Amino acid sequence: MKKNLSLIVSLILLSALLLVGCQKEDGKTGETDKDIVTLDLWNNIAAGRTYFPILIEEFEKNNSGIKIKLNNVNVESSEAEYQAAISDNNLPDMFTTDAYTINEFVELGLVHELNDLFPEKVREEYTDGVFDVGNTMVGDDVYLFPIYKGGTYMMFYNKEVYEELGIETVPKTWEEVMTVGKEIYEKSGGASHGLLFGGQSGWLVNGVVQLMATEASPEAGYDYANGEYNFATVGHVETMEFFKNLLDNNALSPLSLENDSTVARELFTSGKAAFLLDGNWTGQLLHESEFENWGVVPLPTKDANGKQYGEFRLGSNDGMYVSKETKNWNEVKIFMEFLRENIYGEILKDGEPLIAKDSAAIKVELPFEEVNDIADIFLNMSIRVPNPIVLNPHTQEVRTEFLKNAPDESIGSVTMGYLTGQVKDLKGTLQKYTDDYNAEFTKAIDGNEHVTKEDYKFPNWVPYQSYTEENYKELNR
Amino acid sequence: MKVGKRRKVNKQTRNRYIWAYIFILPQFIVFFGLSLYPIIMSYVYSFYDWTGIGPLNKFVGFSNYISVFKEEKFWNAFKNTFIYTAGFTMVSVSAALVLALILNNPKLKGIGIYRTIYFLPVVTTTAIIGIIMKNIFGNQGLINEALKIIGVIDQAVPWLINPVTAMIVLIIVGSWKEIGIIMIYWLTGLQMIPRELYEAAHIDGAGYWQTLRHITLPLLAPIGATIILLTTVSSMHVFDLVKTLTGGGPYYSTETLELYIYRFAFASDGISQVGYASTVGVILGLTVFIISLGLGWVVMRVNKSRADAGVQG
């Protein structure tokens, strides 16, 4: 027994020695590269998979002492990956994510301020509103490296379906969408439908319905004048009923009910529908998939002269963060400075027009002509709306608190429930959603001693117009 | 009686104990680190208002539990889980038994091939099956096109858009996926039945149905109860199939508890609520535990009654 024990112990020691030996060997290899600093970059921007490798290659060519290790994170599972990285105190040096908001990251002390990179003079080169509090800044500090300036939704159309069926009208109004949709279904013998969208992507349905609802009801979603949420507006009800009518009349593809935005895009390119509702990034994705025969127009309106608007707002996913725990801040800064000068041109070349910087100053050859159309639609649709955080930073605490407890529902899910016949009483469901939402909102306000209901009221807000610095001053708060 | 005197352990026995503990240690570490610790922590998280990042500093007592029990969609997910579990258990256990009875026939040629074919879905990734089946049962999928060609339907059946048909499709696909492994359980039970019993029954003039009714099924009862227990418990954890096949829709009508937990723990369109999700996880765990105890008791009773019958016989 003693002999056996000695033998096993000797074997373990020998293995350990060998392993240590291997480690030393690795260490020696590392020593030859000791001057090279490796920075980790986690990316979850779809188009970033194309432009980051190009930028990194160019950067490394001129900065031999710095290597960038790119990790393209899966959008669907990134939330869990970031949770694990934060728990292990192991965030990468730089990262793009929509897993958490800028305020959450700053509040938890997880991200590095970027003030040196964006002095006042540099900020002037960017689109107005990019450096608003809540977008890239918290208080007086910049925390998010702005890449995009937000986004919006629009309607893409398939020219191949048009040519094949001999249709000429590109619809602008709801009525035209219905007429052309029916015509497409009949002429194609049911092989193609008019409209299509990825109904399984809740965020998409939510965004589209919200934008379309603002035509009839500018107070749809959030009523800036009264400081209350409102999801039971005429605009919401009419928009949902419009989609239901399209579905019942074969002008909306039933494939919309069972597919997400990615599959819907594939179905659109294969000619299953003439129109696709999707986000501004779809142009770049269509171009990347080598489908070129398409055009883009704004979302249809109920009236020919109808107006819609969306909030000009940057989310976490519109930029890049730097981990506060980075051990290589100087090298990160060098890379960030390089990105600041080069990333926007590369994005434009890739076919995405909504860069955070003023695109007029960047001269590059655009990959397809519709890039300008997408930029125009965004400019006409997105406006700066009142933001309570500008006047009272504590309102962010209220927002975080009530969003956690807000009803487990959304405009997108109600729309899909209505289209599939699950929601029978549309107005009643929307009213209950609104009431429950406002109840949690009021509860969160009451629970915060630094915030009152008045912080959320902007009586001088004029619908469809950008809210300016002067407007904030007029309030005298 | 010598109270307090320690039993003398010789050197050889002590060494055996030491080695036994050394061999158990890795398993103990894995069990504690990967099973027990997460379970304990999910109980801890359930008493906190926590988004999944940052310190655990907002203790809320039973507030999460109260919120869960008040939440309509939790009860909807709870109900859906039970509907799926009941449907899945009935379909998969009975269909697997029929298959096992057929494939247990030694005269059948190519048994190995059939068993492999039925076992293939078991080793296929569930998420892949979900995506493929979504295409097959889709509005313009294989099933609808085939039914149109043979003239059964004029308009496509909205399999995944109607809440009833969506749940039925989910149960059928889930059962088809797991039928192979349940069939193996049944085959094990069938092969444990002594052949002499069948020979004796045959001599006494019993036919196939009589031997099935009076020999096979009664002797399969103990293993059958165990199979039902295992199938029920595993089906309560259905997640990847629902996520890829129906996404919990239409309008939450196929959302199960696991999907509900996922939606809150890793919210893509809101703020994550890991504390709340952990509470639902704890409730699901306790529910599965209670059901396991109940079914375990049934298994014990069945085994006991079979043993008593054997003694009396």
From TrEMBL, chain A:
Pfam families: SBP_bac_1
TM segment ranges: none
SUPFAM superfamilies the UniProt entry points to: Periplasmic binding protein-like II
Signal peptide: 1-24
Keywords, sorted A to Z: Cell membrane, Lipoprotein, Membrane, Palmitate, Signal
Protein's recorded name: ABC-type glycerol-3-phosphate transport system substrate-binding protein
TrEMBL record, chain B:
Membrane topology reported for the UniProt record: Multi-pass membrane protein
Lineage: Bacteria, Bacillati, Bacillota, Bacilli, Bacillales
Coiled coil (UniProt feature): none
Positions of the ABC transmembrane type-1 domain: 78-295
Cellular component GO terms held in the UniProt record: plasma membrane
Protein's name in the database: ABC-type sugar transport system permease subunit
Gene Ontology terms: biological process: transmembrane transport
Organism: Sporosarcina limicola
Superkingdom of origin organism: Bacteria
